[in-house]
Amino acid sequence: MYILLLGAPGVGKGKQADLLKKEFNVKILSTGNLLRERAKKDDDLGKEIELCLKKGNLVPFEVVVTLLEEAINSDEYKNGMIFDGFPRTTEQASKLEEILIKKKGMGLEKVIYLDVRPRVIKERILSRRICEKCGKDYNLLLDYPKTGKCGRCGGDLKKRSDDTPETVEHRLEVFKESTAPLINYYKEKGVLVSINGDRDVNAVFDSIKSVFKK
Ligand code: AMP
After folding, report:
1. What is the pLDDT of residue 214?
2. Would you say the CB of residue 59 lies under 6 angstroms from ligand 1?
3. Ligand 1 pocket, 89 CB below 6 A?
């Protein structure tokens, strides 16, 4: 099963991916998490990635695709995957199609677009905290653990370095310019399902589930 979650930063792709993972028993492939993990290495590539993340710019195509292909080819993803944060450009989308067709003989069947108003996105991003160890995200106003530690692995929770008011504005611009064209790209292919993400997490999840349980 291949599920693609499309949407601006902060629309709740990570939260929905977590719920889908439990429901359908498929792993999440988040390029943001892969990149944050790679950026921890103290080498030239690690530093280059860290800088892109901090500024809210897209990491170069070759770097992201190399990390993505390594992950897709690992055993962990043999039952399929939920793509969170990839593709972010039409160039990445056609690369993904090529990879999936080569590997599985088929492209994507459904792309879920989560639609949320920019004002809500900003509020959500600024109250987001993530686990340093496993990447799970929490919201200070909704589900922040009383212990201040990750409920899944016990790791420390912190603000992402790119979740600042200035970087959020820039990331939304990057989304508008580079990623939003994918909405039409997938619409024209007949695979896009648009869902109002401006609702309670579980209501959004029910809408997504119904797409796959028809
Ligand atoms: P996310 O965790 O999806 O919000 O991604 C955080 C940051 O990682 C983005 O602002 C980009 O700098 C980088 N990133 C994640 N996915 C991609 C991608 N598919 N292409 C390029 N850069 C990416």
Report:
1. 65
2. yes
3. no
